[in-house]
Specification:
Elements (H helix, E strand, L loop, with lengths): L1 E7 L3 H11 L4 E8 L6 H14 L7 E3 L13 H4 L21 H11 L4 E5 L4 H9 L3 H4 E7 L19 H5 L1 H8 L5 E4 L1 H4 L8 H9 L3 H17 L5 H7 L7 E10 L10 E4 L6 E8 L1 H12 L3
Parallel strand pairs: 1-2, 1-4, 2-3, 4-5, 5-6, 6-9
Antiparallel strand pairs: 7-8, 7-9
The structure holds alpha-D-ribofuranose and calcium ion (CA).
Alpha-D-ribofuranose binds next to α1, α7 and α12.
Length: about 300
């Protein structure tokens, strides 16, 4: 059983990762911290609680975090995820209150109470994580690992940008935060577009038919979210669930170790994540390949079970 904190910006694929985590006995979710990214932080915080309530998991605390990146205003992705950030799935508004602490303080409290026991899975911009590491410099070494969905490392033909031609959305949104986290000394496993944009790891309409057969609450919600992405984007990209899956089956992803430069600032190369094969300040594990069929089999087996 791995103790996990999820820092996320739900967002359709964040919720698919949350459902996968809730349906996986290997993972114990100690808490969720929410950040502005796909949607404003009020919406990502509400979405996390909407989903937890719907799946009978509202005992998991949700602490809200940053409303904007460190150095600039938010540029959300509601045009992709829908006006509610969740594919207009229609889940009722949450009644569960937020945990009474900012995300970075909540994360620090959990880690300092269980040094060396917690894995952080970050699937949104890294603003909260950077705040936490700046306030508590001892935190990176006290986490067992940080698994993050972010970056485009040109390790495969899919490793190109999705927010600009060169940069991935999470890193681009808050490049300064990413620079802090990538140079924090934490044991980082970075899962980028190189693997998450692999067509073999994408849920298409064929899989949707399979999901629709099941009538459990989890399967019904997954079907709604996947259907929205298939309808408006052709298939459902599994960025965040692929990142989480590495905790469930290490063979789903291959990693290389390398230095990574994160480009900050406001030029054309903002948010570029450049592999430094000749070392660099810190070695990062960067996902270099995905076993798409193995991942999809794992995901479907978990969300389709009773
Ligand atoms: O680039 C994809 C990432 O940005 C995913 O985590 C998605 O949810 C958005 O946050
Ligand atoms: Ca996300």
């Amino acid at each position: 059983m791995r103790k996990v904190v999820l820092d996320m910006d739900p967002g359709i694929d964040d919720v698919l990762a949350l459902i996968l985590a809730l349906k996986s006995p290997e993972v114990q979710i100690l808490g969720i911290t929410t950040v502005a990214g796909n949607a404003p932080v009020e919406m990502t915080s509400a979405n996390a609680r909407r989903v937890l309530k719907y799946l009978g998991a509202s005992s998991i605390p949700v602490a809200a975090g940053a409303a904007n990146p460190l150095n600039r205003p938010l540029e959300d992705a509601l045009s992709y995820h829908g006006p509610d950030g969740l594919g207009s799935c229609g889940l009722p508004s949450p009644r569960t209150p937020l945990y009474p602490a900012k995300a970075w303080d909540f994360l620090a409290r959990l880690v300092l109470d269980a040094p060396g026991e917690i894995t952080l899975v970050a699937t949104g911009p890294l603003t909260n994580v950077a705040h936490a590491f700046e306030l508590h410099p001892e935190l990176p070494a006290l986490l067992t690992r940080v698994v993050l969905m972010g970056g485009a490392y040109t390790l495969t033909p899919y490793g190109k940008g999705n927010r600009t031609p060169f940069a991935e959305f999470n890193i681009w949104q808050d490049a300064e935060a990413a620079h802090i986290v990538f140079n924090s000394g934490a044991d980082i496993f970075a899962v980028g577009l190189d693997v998450t944009m692999d067509p073999a790891a994408c849920l298409n309409s064929q899989y949707l038919k399979q999901i629709k057969i099941r009538r459990t609450p989890a399967a019904r919600l997954v079907a709604q979210l996947v259907e929205y992405e298939v309808k408006y984007h052709g298939c459902c990209r599994m960025h965040d669930p692929i990142a989480l899956a590495t905790l469930l089956d290490a063979s789903v992803l291959d990693f290389i170790s390398a230095g990574v430069e994160v480009v900050v600032g406001n030029d054309w190369d903002r948010g570029v994540t450049r592999i430094l094969f000749s070392g660099g300040s810190q070695s990062i594990h960067v996902a270099s390949a995905v076993d798409g069929p193995r991942f999809l089999k794992l995901f479907l087996s978990r969300i389709l079970e009773e």
